[in-house]
Every structure is written in C-alpha cells, then in structure tokens.
Amino acid sequence: MNDFSLPKRVDVAVIGGGPVGGLAACALAQSGVSVALIEAADPAELGRPGTDGRAIAVALSAQRVFDGAGVWPLMAPEAQPILEIRVTDGASPLFLHYDHAALGEAPFGWIVENTTIRRAVHQRLAALPAAHVAAPARAAAVERGPGGATITLADGRTLRAALVVGADGRASFVRKSAAIGVNRLGYGQSGIVTTVAHQQPHRGIAHERFLPSGPFAILPMTGNRSSIVWTERLHLADAIVGQDDAGFLAELETRFGDFLGPIALAGPRFHYPLTLQVAERAVCRRLALIGDAAHGMHPVAGQGMNMGIRDVAALAEAVVDAARLGLDVGGPDVLAGYQRWRRFDNLLMLGLTDALVRLFSNDVGPLRLARDLGLAAVERMPGLKKTFMRHAMGVVGDLPRMMRGEVL
Ligand SMILES: Cc1cc2nc3c(=O)[nH]c(=O)nc-3n(C[C@H](O)[C@H](O)[C@H](O)COP(=O)(O)OP(=O)(O)OC[C@H]3O[C@@H](n4cnc5c(N)ncnc54)[C@H](O)[C@@H]3O)c2cc1C
Q1: DSSP string of 218-275?
Q2: 121 in ligand 1 pocket by Cβ < 6 Å?
Q3: Which atom of ligand 1 is nearest to 22's Cα?
Q4: pLDDT, tens digit, 9 for 90 and up, residues 198-219
C-alpha cells in the first residue's frame, strides 16, 4: 500500500487508476487542482509486463494529451510509431493503403503496451504534489449531496470532494452507485491478444485484415515484434487460447502468413469478450464518468482508450477553467459542459465502430463484393482517404486544448 495519509478534502476524487483515470489525475494535478486517485489494484502489479496482453494504438491527438500531462516522456522509449496502415478483406486483392507522409511528418499514432501506459501514469503521479494516490484501495461507497461528495474506502477511510470522477472500467461501481443504467450489446466475439517476434522488420506498418470470423490486426511494436488482435467467435476463443504453444502458433500462422519471415510467440495470450456498452448518462450531481465506465467499444478501429482520453481532455479543461475562475469544480455548469462536449462524439464513434464490425464480420457474397468495391473506391478518392487518415489520428472535430497540443 502507498504510504501516505489521504487529505480530508480534495477538489476531485478519481476512482479507478487505469490508463484513463490515471491520466485524468495527472492532467488535473499538474494544473494545481488537488486530486485523490483511488485504485483497487497495486500500481506495481498493474504495470508489470505480461499481466495484460493488450497493446494500444494511441492516436496522435491522444499522444498530445499524454505529453501535456507529462506522461509521454515516460512511455516514449517503448512506443512504436505507426507509419502506414494496410486494410485487406480476406483473400481479396483489393485493399486500402494509408501512408502518414500524405499528411505530413507526424505518424498516425503509436503502439504502446497497456502495462507501459499504466506504469507511466503512476510514475508521473508520484512526482505531482497535488496528487494523492490511495492504492491498493477500493472505493466502497459514494454519497453525493448539493455541497459535495463523500467517498468511503473499503478500509474505512473517508474523504470529501467537490467532484467524483468514475474511471473504474466497464463494470463501474461508481456508475452503479449513482443508479446510472447501461445499454449493452454482445457481438458473440472475443478478442485474442498476444505478441509475436518475427525475422523481418515491420517498417512501422499496421495491418487490418477482415476475415469471416472477424477482424485480425497486426500492430507494429518496438523491435521486430508485433501485437496481434485476433477476433474470433466467442465459443471458439477458449479452445484456441488454451492450446499448447505449438498448436496456437500453427493456427496463428495460417492467419498471419509469412510476409515477415518465420514468427515465434513472444508473450502470453489473453482473450477479452467483446461488447458495445454505453452509460445512459455520463454525468449526474457531483459526478462524471470517463473512459470505459462511460462507454466501451469493439477494438476493430482501436478507439476505446482514445475516446477515454478525449473525455480526459474535455473534463480537465472544464474543471481547470472553473478552478481558475474560482468557481465550483463539481458544479452543474462544469458537468453540463463536459456532457455536451463528449456525448455526441462518443455516440458517433460507438455507432461507426458497430457498423464496421457488422459489415466486415461475415462472409456473405454480395456484402463482400459491396465492401470490396467500397474499399477500392476509397483508395481512388484522395480527398476521402485524407479525411479517414485525419480520423485515425483523431485530429478532427471540436478538440479540447490538450488534444490540439496547447497548454491546459
Ligand atoms: C483486445 C483489445 C484491444 C484494444 N485495443 C485498443 C486500441 O488499440 N486503442 C484504443 O484506444 N483502445 C483499445 N482498447 C480499449 C482499451 O483497452 C480500453 O478502452 C481502456 O483500457 C480503458 O481504460 P480505463 O482506464 O477506462 O479502464 P480500465 O483499464 O478497466 O481501468 C479501470 C480501473 O479501475 C479500477 N477499479 C475498478 N473498481 C474500482 C473500485 N471500486 N475502487 C477503486 N478502483 C477500482 C480497476 O482496478 C482498474 O485499474 C482495446 C480493448 C481490447 C479488449
């Protein structure tokens, strides 16, 4: 347990110290807002390599938020730039090819292991005097009233805050404590993740292949390594992951191919059931939800955490602006502003991601032909291609200051 005493009162209590909650606490504390971060797990365990198979595609705009909060320098040595993206549909020769050079110098984004991100945010928090971290410590009760909120931890400690931020993931306790419902939709799919080493360099190219069972992504990591996100039917995933290494590798090779030379397993394998879910509201009195606590999506477009980081940038801006004006940081104006900024954008991304999964996770002949013609058409329309590229970088729309690379 971190050896510290919780202050009796803070401006903001963030519950959940995953990548999104941890980053929110960094952004606020760096701007002088007093923050308590309550995380159920031991941060050393959260950041231990091999405890989570996910590698995250961090879009350019999200990278700016990590940078603005002082976290990026701690993860940059382990971040692989994405320079090109190739999209193919099964065995069809038609494909889309995106090259970052068409838009300028900046890469589309970076691939970073989830454990690296968690380690980096907790390292940064330890250096911020306005941040108080309780971990491992579980939030057990949240009571909200007109003048503020009281959070009670499972070990009996209590603290008061003007604003409670629920960043405690898909099964959010904070969301439930406020009786906010959630709409959920299963895909009958699981995301198998692992890391492979290969003989040839990947040259920063990410591959997205649409196979009948679902999308199969090969994401470049530092060194001659790639992260795999292999979408498979839910009822098959357990058996595939549970095979011995030789059996698993043989199945993987049929999907991966030999374009990077021989491959070898270079990390443990995990699988995550894939669902779409969205909270009925992202705010209520003295409370805001961010990240997976507010919305969860299929990883096909690599946008789940990126959307959570947009939440962070928007909420941090609303809170810090209010604090500078001497206003109540958990007041209705701050919360309404946050909800207005993020709600439509999150719903739009959830809808687009869902449509992508449904369109591509099947092998129906006429649909396959239509989408292949669609891919070929986009490939021939440079204007539309550039728009898609800007979306992948996350640099479109009404962006908060941190996402534009400006000081909070
Ligand atoms: C296979 C796969 C691939 C993905 N790839 C990408 C990608 O390429 N790009 C992308 O943007 N997104 C991707 N995502 C989505 C991304 O992983 C999630 O959106 C992101 O990890 C959510 O982070 P979070 O901090 O909101 O939640 P979490 O990481 O779930 O963190 C929640 C934290 O809250 C803590 N907690 C829970 N309850 C309590 C409590 N009562 N008290 C205190 N603490 C509590 C937990 O211990 C945990 O640390 C992927 C997801 C999957 C499944």
Answers
A1: EEEETTTEEEEEEEEEHHHHHHHHHS-HHHHHHHHHHHH-STTSSEEE-S--EEEEEE
A2: no
A3: 25
A4: 999 999 999 989 888 788 999 9
Q: Note the pLDDT tens digit of each residue in 213-236.
A: 788 999 999 999 999 999 999 999
- Quick count: other Cβ atoms within 10 Å of Cβ 81? 16
* 70 φ/ψ angles, rounded to the nearest 5 degrees: 80, 15
pLDDT, tens digit (0-9, with 9 covering 90-100), for 271-311:
999 999 999 999 999 999 999 999 999 998 889 999 999 99
Using pLDDT thresholds of 50, 70 and 90, give the confidence band for residue 1: very low
Query: What 3-state class would DSSP assign to 68?
Result: helix
Domain parsing of the chain, residue ranges: 9-82+109-181+278-362
Domain 9-82+109-181+278-362: state its class: alpha beta
CA-closest residue to ligand 1 atom 51: 299
Q: Tell me how far apart the alpha carbons of residues 186 and 114 are, in angstroms, rounded to a whole number.
A: 23
State the distance from the centre of ligand 1 to the C-alpha of 113, rounded, in angstroms: 12
Question: Using a 6 Å cutoff on CB, does residue 148 contact ligand 1?
Answer: no
Token pair listed for 167: 């960043």
Q: Output the pLDDT for position 78.
A: 97
CA distance 219 to 228: 6
